[in-house]
Design a protein that fits this description.
The structure is a single chain. The protein has one domain: Porin (Beta Barrel), CATH 2.40.160. It is α+β, with helices and mostly antiparallel strands. It contains three helices and eight strands. It is about 20% helix and about 50% strand. It is elongated and about 85 Å long.
Amino acid sequence: MRKLAGLFVLLVLCGVAARAQDTPPADTGSQDSASQSSSSSTPSDTNADETKKPVKKSSAFSPKYEISVGYDHRSYGPAGSPRIGMSGWVGSFDYDWKRWLGFEGELQGVYATQRPLQGGVEKPSLYTVMGGPQIFPFRHHKISPFGHILYGEGYYQISVGPYGGVGSKTSSYFSHALEGGGGIDVKFKENWAIRGMFDYGTTRFYASSGTSSDSSYRISVGLVYYLGRK
């Protein structure tokens, strides 16, 4: 929880800095005098300045929506048990309310197959549905770092067996889920980008037995499609 709280404070500070960038600079007398002196320059001086300093095209853009799908790998640590490496999928939808701030909804599912020493098969699976703010502190460019905090609901299921003459058994658990992290988008076409992401999360699937929070580390790689422009 301390890691997620620290990350939340960092995202808020990034958001404040990004909001400050949206505030236009105040007009000053020096700017007026500078504009008067520039207007009094000869046409030849103006043409020379334009030749020396060509205008660079900005790489910034402002999508209205973002749709992302990709591969998800999670290292999940059930309370009192070794960590489980689980792989699956992740999908998200983001509404960009501001150039630097969006609201994200995410759905993911990961799975694993284990063969304990005592024989048999264990098949755990984990799903989460979460949402929260997503911050782009430098707005959207060809390379766009971002951070987010997500909160929602998690579902964990594990099928065990059969073991010898004992049949299989399936147990399932629900829990609140909290995750925080971030990543980077690398735009390679007009409406497409590659996304890499790392997150840390907590759940309490075994809270009824009095155990502590479970923890998860996950790495995601996928594609982003930008829909619409502001």
